[in-house]
Structure formats: C-alpha cells, structure tokens
Design a protein that fits this description.
The chain is of the alpha+beta class. It is built from 17 helices and 8 strands. About 30% of the residues are buried.
C-alpha cells in the first residue's frame, strides 16, 4: 500500500530517527543542470511521436508539456536541495491524473509515455555525466535519485488508474510469462515463437541479452519498468532479462531500480544460451547468500565463475579430498588443518619455504618440516603436475564451500 501522495517512506537510522538525504555536491548539480536545456522539449517530442494518445489535445488543463517542464524544474531543484517543496508538482500531477483517468487514454499508453520520458532523460543525463568524467559512484547516486523522483511523480497518476480497477490486459501478462519461460528453459523456444510473443509485447528481439538473477520478493521499482527489460519477479526464482550488454549506466540503473540485494548480472550471451547464463547467475547469487564471498549490492557473475565451478558439487569435492589427501585425513584436527593450509599455500605459491613462510607468518624451517610430513602422508604424488592441480583445486573449493551446502 502506497503512502498518501506527497509522503514517502523515510529512511530510518538504527535508533529509528529519520535520515534526510544529503544535498548533492554543487559540482555534480552543475553537471546535471548543464544537460537540461532543451530536455523537456526533447522528452515531450519523443512521447508525442511515439504515443499518439498523449498528443491528443482535449483542451483540459494541465497540458502534458506543462507537466514535463514542471517535472524537470523540480527534478533539478530537489537534486540540489532535497528540502525543496514537492507540493506544487504533486498538485499538478493530481490534476493531470484526474484528466487522464476521465479521458479515453489507456493505461498502456500512459506507461509507454513514462518509459519514453525516463529513457530520454536517462540517456541525456548519462551522456552528460560521461562527458564530464563523473565517477561511477556519482552516476549511481544520480540514478538512485532519478528512480526515487520518478516513483514520486508516477504514483499519483498510475494509482489513479489502479483505483479504477484498470489492469494490464491478461493476454499481455500471459505473453510475457510465456516469453520468459521460452527463453529460460531448454529447449529454448523457436525463433518464430519468440518473435510472435515479442511482437505482442512490443519488445524488439535482440541478438544477445543478459539475464539478471534477483532475490525472492525483490520489487522492480515503477520508474524502472522499462519496455526493453523483461521481468519475471514472481515465483521462487525471479529474474530479469536485459537486451544486449550491461554497461556502467545500465548497472547504475539496475542498482537503483531493485529494492533488495544482492543482484547478480549474468553473462551477455546469444538468446539460445540464456538458460545456461541464467543458471550460472542464480548459482552465483546462492554463493553470495551463503557468504562464500562478501556480496556487493550488484554482483558480476563473470567475476565468480571460478567460485561457481569449484563449489558446484561439495560431496564430490570431499570425496576427491579423501582420495587425494591420503593420510592427512586421519590426523588430529589441529594438525590436519595446519598441514592442509601449508599445502594449499605451497601449491599456490609454488615457491621456496621462505616465501611460503612469509605468507603464513612461519619460520622457513617450520614450513620445511610440515612439507616433509605432507610428503610422508601423501607420498611421491606431489611431484606429479596433475596431482598438484587436483589438490590445489580441491583445497580452493573447500575454502569456498560453506559447511552443509548441497550440490547444485
């Protein structure tokens, strides 16, 4: 349930105190302001050219042009100072929402207009930020602000439609579900089927796409419900599909749009390989939730493919360890742990006892003594390159696998 128009969920600190957003740095505000001249006109021109319903003049105030201009003015003012009042814009949106609801414009047309406005403004803002060498962190800050601002101005209009009981056509919901299922399961749906379903949704079929794995219960914020991103957020394994690759601007957008992390951006692959890329992204998400590595809000699956490979079958790893580590498995726990850790570092370093000792904070003589014990328990197989490779992989995998984690 949304709050009344004009009220937002405050960010709460640990003691329950309201945390007010900090004003943006003046230099970042100026970068943003430099991209605004002509943007309102560009947005309305794009909307008018693409969504004929919005271009129909019915004589009732306020006009779409006025709404866009006031929204852009308020956008900059609140980015510079979050205390800038929002009441004037919200009143205007109320009036616009009432006009739209009582007219003949469809909810689909309204959504299309919102998507175009968002895409047009985000493209301009990204372009200006890149040209001015704005950092990734500041770009993410701008994306988060734009998401929050768009949510604030979308709610008063869209909720009016929802209050009237107008829902997305059942056929569109069903087509989206079929398309997502057809792209995520093997065998992948035929190109003819994909093209047919995509045409119903108005989705341009790309040559490549990127699956994004998200946690159950994640909400895809209204401002980010872009027409080019397909979403399947219901069920036990929610995910998104992004056409093409995910660049820094798109990453910032995803990070701001999804309200629960971590989120895993999968590999960019041809459509026929989406099932594998999605499975790997989900596997990396499971590792992050298990604490195998420190999760960032937005995780790249490509950076954790080795982790996924090494932890895909923990029982098999343990079986290989029992067979390859020989007598080490039967030693008392403390001694076994010390020798195993020394072996792991020695295999990784493949260097002298002095180098291994520096890594483990041990005297070289202690390292040599432990290596003699290891050779005694494992035998001469340590001189075999294949054995060393298997042992190093097994020991790396054991460090990455949480206790009790089942095989994928």
């Amino acid at each position: 349930m949304s709050l009344p128009v004009g009220q937002r969920d405050p960010a709460l600190g640990r003691e329950g105190a309201v945390v007010r957003p900090e004003p943006a740095p003046p230099e970042l505000v100026e970068v943003l302001r430099s991209g605004l001249p002509g943007l309102a006109e560009e947005i309305y021109t794009a909307v008018r050219a693409t969504v004929p319903d919005v271009a129909v003049a019915d004589g009732g105030p306020p006009s779409p042009e006025r709404v866009v201009r006031e929204a852009m003015r308020t956008y900059v003012a609140r980015f510079a100072d979050p205390a800038e009042p929002l009441d004037g814009l919200l009143e205007l949106l109320h009036s616009f929402g009432r006009r739209e609801v009582t007219g003949n414009r469809s909810l689909e047309s309204l959504h299309a207009a919102i998507h175009i406005a968002f895409d047009t403004s985000w493209h301009r803002i990204t372009e200006v930020c890149v040209r001015n060498k704005v950092s990734g962190a500041d770009l993410a800050r701008v994306a988060e602000f734009q998401m929050a601002f768009m949510d604030q101005i979308i709610d008063p209009i869209v909720e009016a439609y929802l209050d009237q009981g107008l829902k997305a056509p059942v056929d569109l919901v069903h087509s989206r579900r079929l398309l997502m299922r057809g792209l995520s399961t093997r065998p992948v749906a035929s190109r003819e089927t994909i093209d047919h379903l995509a045409a119903k949704l108005g989705w341009n079929v790309p040559e490549t796409a990127t699956p994004v794995a998200v946690r159950r219960g994640t909400r895809w914020r209204p401002a980010a419900a872009r027409r080019d991103v397909l979403s399947a957020l219901g069920g036990t394994a929610p995910w998104l599909l992004v056409p093409g690759g995910v660049d820094e601007a798109r990453r910032a957008l995803l990070g701001a749009a999804l309200d629960r992390g971590p989120v895993v951006v999968g590999l960019t692959v041809p459509l026929g390989e989406i099932p594998d890329a999605l499975r790997w992204a989900r596997g990396v998400l499971a590792l992050a939730e298990d604490g195998v590595f420190d999760p960032a809000p937005l995780i790249s699956a490509e950076e954790h493919l080795l982790d996924l490979w090494l932890t895909c079958d923990p029982p098999l790893v343990e079986e290989i360890a029992r067979r390859r580590l020989g007598g080490l498995a039967g030693l008392p726990e403390g001694k076994r742990r010390a020798l195993t850790e020394t072996l792991r570092v020695w295999l990784e370093q493949w260097s002298t006892a002095a180098d291994v000792g520096r890594r483990l904070h041990l005297h070289p003589q202690t390292v040599r003594y432990r290596l003699r014990q290891i050779r005694k328990e494992i035998g001469g197989r340590l001189d075999d390159p294949e054995t060393r490779f298997v042992l190093e992989a097994v020991l790396k995998a054991r460090r990455r696998t949480p206790p009790g984690r089942p095989a994928s």
